[in-house]
Write a structure and sequence with these properties.
The protein is mainly α. It contains 15 helices and two strands.
């Protein structure tokens, strides 16, 4: 097997091309827009498929250097924070608590599904956790952290099952969020969002009014948020609390965004606002494109029948729980539908997939400001803490 590593700059350039492919496909095919299929999914998955062909047919393993990917996520969340006002945060307090509680219930159900299917296949029950909240809600980082512990417990192959489950979940999360939201909007004939500036990106068929200074001003403010975000992250780390770096950038963005009226004595002008939305949209699109192009699909071949069974049930659970529970308790309105599109990303993929699903829906139907505050906070903070405690409980009870 010949191993080929693509350097960071080239990987970044390939990601730009792939995002162009996705955006062009979305503009050309109305079906993709109708079901709010995220643009990065198209190019990213195409690249992953080509890499898989090279692996299976030409005996070449291609790996991309994706170190710039995490920086793009910081730009994105700083932009989310800058667009959040305190009124929206206050109004989102109760829904935030409700969504967090529903996410906690879902984590438990997700693990029961994983354990149940593993038991039915005659596998160690704990192996099902690797197709539960460890790999799906927890992501690759949580999977890598728990795999050695499972090995010490005599459960071999946990890492492979976890990474494969995360790969399938990431793809499923990107594909179900938009269709679920559009089904709810159509079924209940919901009044869609306003034509205000979106939190991320620009609505389809809307002409951007950007100029040099607007983009440069937005870029400067985002960089300032990230610089202070690094500082806040170090302060938080000193307390012993471990949070993703993007949470610090989100918090700083919220603070700067709400204090700018007192410091600058004015709001962002339209060009700066659209520049902010454009940079955030590109950053998110590039992040998810790079995440998908880095998938190694051949990792799915081990325990294929088990993976197909458990992940089908996990996807069905996500859709059913979202449509009948999340949407209802979030208020059965357009904001609830947008939050529902993000819930698939929370439960099957990652924070990025949750937000890119919501972005695709709002670009088609209009702004949903509250959703873009509630979901990132649940993804980036509360759900990680809850997941860690629930995983420890299950491992202690079963192991």
């Amino acid at each position: 097997m010949e191993e080929i590593t693509i350097k960071g700059f080239v990987s970044f350039t390939i990601a730009i091309i792939l995002l162009f492919v996705g955006k062009h496909a979305t503009q050309r095919f109305a079906t993709l827009r109708k079901y709010s299929i995220p643009e990065p999914v198209i190019g990213g998955f195409l690249c992953a498929s080509v890499v898989a062909v090279l692996y299976y047919i030409f005996d070449k393993q291609v790996t991309f250097n994706l170190e710039v990917r995490d920086i793009l996520l910081l730009y994105f969340f700083a932009g989310i924070g800058l667009n959040a006002d305190f009124k929206t945060l206050i109004s989102g307090g109760k829904p935030l608590l409700i969504l967090t509680l529903m996410a906690v219930v879902y984590i438990v159900l997700q693990n029961f599904v994983g354990i149940g299917v593993a038991t039915a296949f005659g596998m160690e029950p704990l192996m099902g956790m690797m197709s539960g909240s460890i790999s799906l809600i927890g992501g690759v980082g949580t999977t890598v952290a728990w795999a050695p512990i499972f090995d010490e417990m005599g459960i071999s192959g946990a890492s492979e099952i976890g990474i494969a489950s995360n790969t399938i979940g990431l793809l499923a999360a990107c594909l179900i969020g938009g269709p679920v939201a559009n089904y709810l909007i159509k079924r209940d004939n919901l009044a869609t969002g306003s034509h205000e500036a979106l939190d991320i990106g620009i609505q389809h068929n809307t002409e951007a009014k950007l100029d040099y200074f607007g983009v440069l001003h937005a870029w400067l403010i985002l960089n300032v948020c990230i610089i202070f975000g690094y500082g806040l992250d170090m302060i938080i780390a000193e307390t012993g609390l471990k949070l993703p770096m993007f949470v610090s950038c989100l918090i700083v963005g919220i603070i700067i965004g709400n204090l700018k009226i007192y410091v600058l004595k004015r709001e962002f002008n339209e060009n700066s606002q659209q520049g902010l939305g454009m940079i955030s949209d590109i950053s998110l699109g590039m992040f998810l494109t790079m995440a998908l192009m880095g998938l190694q699909l051949w990792q799915l071949q081990s325990a294929m029948v088990f993976l197909a069974s458990v992940m089908t049930l996990q996807a069905l659970l996500s859709v059913i729980f979202t449509v009948f529970i999340v949407y209802r308790f979030m208020g059965r309105d357009y904001e609830a539908a947008v939050i529902s599109s993000g819930f698939g990303g929370i439960t099957l993929g990652s924070t990025a997939t949750a937000i890119v699903n919501m972005t695709a829906v709002t670009q088609q139907n209009g702004a949903a400001h509250r959703a873009f505050i509630i979901v990132p906070l649940v993804c980036g903070f509360f759900i990680d803490l809850a997941n860690a405690m629930i995983i420890n409980y299950f491992v202690g009870a079963i192991g």
